[in-house]
Specification:
- The chain has helices at residues 3-12, 30-40, 54-64, 66-75, 87-92, 120-131, 136-146, 151-163, 167-184, 189-206, 209-227, 232-244, 248-257, 262-272, 277-282, 286-293, 296-313, 323-341, 345-358, 362-374, 378-390, 395-404, and strands spanning 43-49, 76-82, 100-104, 110-115.
- With 412 residues, the chain is α+β, with helices and mostly antiparallel strands.
- It folds into 3 domains: 3-134, Glutaredoxin, CATH 3.40.30.10; 208-283; 296-411, no CATH class.
- It has a 4-stranded mixed beta sheet.
- Helix 13 runs antiparallel to helix 14 (262-272), helix 16 packs across helix 18 (323-341) and helix 18 runs antiparallel to helix 19.
- The chain is globular and about 80 Å long.
- The termini are far apart.
Length: 412
């Protein structure tokens, strides 16, 4: 059954009035609300809030309005959702602004949403539009026609198009939000570089035209940088897009072209270099990789201190994955290998000592040995291997270390 007819059928079955004195927002969790909406054949209204947000607090006046209470009481199951505490649910419903009110049908399909504070009149206008059975594309298009420059409404319209498989039109609206959204409304910038960019990255997986559109923008920004006319915001946008869409080759291309641009080009190259570490390492450009790392020893200490502070504030369960720790270790591995490849053996030794003191697991020993072998620092690789086998590792870990470094059978 088409969405419009299905909604009309559902709403026709709704009770006509709420019980007097009922609170409009029920004190139940999301799974219970979903079940209640399905059993009672009502619209589910999710009000994403944050106690610290002033616009969210203003909604209390909306819920006190008699007509709003009547509409919710007769046609909806409404609950408040703490967006901070319920992060997974907020991500599921693409919440990018507080407050956000999401209307969902009994089958779990989104019908419409409203961002920001809605007074009683505006809320009822949204609610009655849903009751009229208009689909999301028609509703968002009507709203956008009344506020043509509103990037939030344009983003809603884009999602409505994408949800119904209109990928080309949806992409066009997303790109309009990217190109002009923050110009029309500066407060849209965090959404532009957050939720909007996430939507474009997801769309690329299923709609190749997204790649072409983004590459066009990355290349245009790169050309401006080489020509010397890029603003700070454009430089940041170039790096952001190239990084999120996994095109370090384009960053490297601009980085190399800037070599002919004097001191101004050199300054930009230094800014781009940290985003090229993996690429420079893969291409064997170790001198440049080491430069991109800056003061590697000092930076490693800073990263370790930051990690320690974060873990002191929020410890992980034993055995749980620890991507923050792994990120610190990877920085150390890269710096260690680059130092070896450029014959800075003293620096390499200090980095190895520090990362082993920070993370003495067998994985750290094995990775340092592997990196030393790859840099053809055989003597150091053997020394690191012996250090692991003679150190405090368990017998099981020592066996794993031997198995991971098959190039040294005499050490087994």
């Amino acid at each position: 059954m088409p969405l419009r007819l299905r909604l009309l059928a559902v709403l026709a079955l709704l009770p006509l009035a709420a019980a007097a004195g009922d609170e409009p927002l029920r004190a139940i969790d999301y799974p219970t609300a979903v079940a209640a909406a399905r059993d009672e054949e009502r619209v589910l209204v999710l009000v994403f809030v944050d106690a610290k947000n002033p616009e969210a607090r203003k909604l209390e006046a909306t819920w006190r309005d008699g007509k709003v209470r009547e509409w919710i009481g007769s046609k909806a199951v409404a609950i408040a959702v703490d967006a901070g505490a319920e992060r997974a649910l907020a991500e599921k419903f693409r919440v990018d602004r507080i407050p956000t009110i999401v209307f969902v049908d009994p089958q779990g399909l989104e019908l419409d949403r409203a961002r920001g504070y809605r007074d009683a009149r505006a809320f009822l206008e949204d609610a009655e539009s849903i009751a009229a059975g208009k689909d999301a594309i028609a509703r968002t298009k009507e709203k956008l026609a009344r506020e043509v420059g509103n990037p939030w409404l344009r983003l809603d319209h884009a999602h409505a198009l994408l949800d119904q498989g209109k990928l080309s039109e949806g992409l066009a609206r997303l790109l309009e939000c990217w190109d002009r959204g923050a110009v029309a409304d500066p407060s849209f910038e965090p959404v532009r570089t957050g939720a909007l960019l996430d939507a474009l990255v997801r769309l690329e997986d299923i709609f190749p035209a997204t790649t072409d559109a983004i590459l066009e923008r990355i290349q245009a920004l790169g050309q401006q940088m080489v020509a010397g006319g890029a603003t700070e915001a454009q430089i940041g946008e170039f790096v952001l897009l190239a990084t999120r869409f996994e095109r370090p080759d384009l960053i490297l291309q601009v980085h190399d072209l800037l070599a002919e641009k004097g001191e101004a080009g050199a300054a930009l190259r230094r800014r781009l270099a940290p985003h090229l570490l993996d690429t420079l390492m893969e291409e064997g450009r170790f001198d440049e990789a080491l430069v991109s790392l800056g003061d590697a020893e000092k930076d490693l200490e800073t990263r370790i201190a930051k990690y320690a502070a974060e873990r002191a504030a929020a410890a992980l369960p034993a055995g749980a994955p620890d991507p923050a720790r792994d990120s610190v270790a990877k920085f150390a591995y890269d710096a260690f290998e680059a130092a070896l490849a450029t014959k800075k053996l003293e620096l390499a030794g200090k980095l190895a000592d520090r990362v082993l003191a920070f993370d003495g697991r067998v994985e750290t020993h094995a990775e340092l040995v592997r990196r030393a072998r790859r840099a053809r620092a055989t003597a150091l690789a053997v020394a690191l291997m012996r250090r692991g086998l003679d150190g405090p590792l368990s017998e099981d870990d020592k066996r794993l270390l031997r198995q991971s470094v098959v190039a040294f059978p005499r050490l087994k």
